[in-house]
Amino acid sequence: MFKFLTKLDYLLKETFLGLLRGGWMNWAAVSTVTVLLFLFGLSLQTSWQVEKLLNQFGSQLEVSVYLESGISAPTLEPFVAQVPDVVGMQVITKEQAWTKLVKELGISDIEGATQQLGENPLVDEIKVKARNSQAVPVLATQLAKLQGVETVQYVDEAVKRIAQLHRGLNWITLTITIILTLTAIAVTTTTIRLIVLARRREIEIMQLVGATTAWIYLPFILQGVTFGLLGGAIAWSFISLIQQFIGKLLTNQPEFIQFITNGLQLTSAQILLLPLILLGFGATVGLMGSLFAVRRFARS
C-alpha cells in the first residue's frame, strides 16, 4: 500500500509540475477543449429541451372530433375512450358552442339569433387529448373511422416544425462536434508534444537510470486528461451561468412564454448527467491527444 501511494504521489507531482511548466501552451489546449465542450454542451442541452418541448406540445395538442348532426357526444364518449393513446377528452355540446359563438359575435339576444336561423346549426364536439405528438396522426385516423363522426381536425404544423428543428439541430451538433473534437485533439497533441520536447533531457536521464516507458510518459498522459477535465468544468460553469441568466430573464413573462419556459426545463437526471458527459468527453479528448503525442516518442 505504501509503495502504491509513493508511486501515486510521484505521478501527481510530475503531472502538476508539467502543468506549471507548460505555461501558455496549456492554456491553448484547455481553451480549445473548453470551446468544444461549451458548444457541445449547449447543443446537447438545446436538443434535450427541444425534445421535451416537442413532447409537451404533443401532450397539449387536442384533436377536435365533430359529430354528425343528430348524434350526441355522450353516446360516443365510451367508444372514444377505448381508442389507444387517448389520455383525456372534453365534450362541447352544440348548445355550448352556439352560446360561445354568439357571444363572440357580440350578439346579446341568443334566443332571437337561434329563432332567426330556425335551429342551432352547430354539432356536438369532442376535444381529445393525445398521449404524445407522434400518436396524433394515427389517433385522428382511428377517430375518423368511428360511426357518427363527421370530421376530425387537428393542427400539427407546429409539431412538425419543432420536429424538423430537432432533427436539424442534431445534425448540426454532430457536425460541429466532430470538427471541434478533431481540432481539440490536434491542439492537445501539439501541446503535449512540445512539453515532452522541452523535457527531453530529463527523459533521457530517466531512461539511462532504467525507468520504463510507461512510467516516463504517464505524467504527460495525465496532463492531457487534466486539460480535458478543466475544459469540461469551465464549459459547464459557463452553461450554468447562461441558464441562470435566461431563467431570470423569463420570469414574470406572459402565459405562453411561461408555457415555453416550462417545456425547456431539464429533468433532474439531465441536470446531473450534463456535467458528467462534459467531464467524460473532455477527459477522453485529452487522453486521445496525449496518447497521440507520446506515441512517437515512446517508440523512439
Roughly what percent helix? over 70%
- Mean pLDDT score, rounded? 77
How many E strands? 4
- Total number of helices: 11
Query: What does the overall shape look like?
Result: rod-shaped
Sequence of secondary-structure elements: HHEHEHHEHEHHHHH
Spatial order of the strands in the main sheet?
A: 2-3-1-4
Instruction: Provide the gyration radius in Å.
Output: 32 Å
How is the biggest beta sheet arranged? 4 strands, antiparallel
The fraction of residues in strands falls at 5-15%
* Low-pLDDT stretches: none
Oligomeric description of these chains: single chain
What is the straight-line distance between the termini? Answer: 33 Å
| SS-based class | alpha+beta
Question: In words, what does this structure look like?
Answer:
The structure is a single chain. The chain is α+β, with helices and mostly antiparallel strands and 300 residues long. The protein has eleven helices and four strands. The protein has a four-stranded antiparallel sheet with strand order 2-3-1-4, with helices on both faces. The longest helix is centred in the middle third of the chain and has 42 residues, at 157-198. The two termini are 33 Å apart. The mean pLDDT is 77.
Concise synopsis of the structure shown:
This protein is of the alpha+beta class and 300 residues long. The chain is built from 11 helices and 4 strands; from the N terminus they run ααβαβααβαβααααα.
Please give a handful of descriptors for the protein shown.
four-stranded antiparallel beta sheet, 300 residues, 75% helix
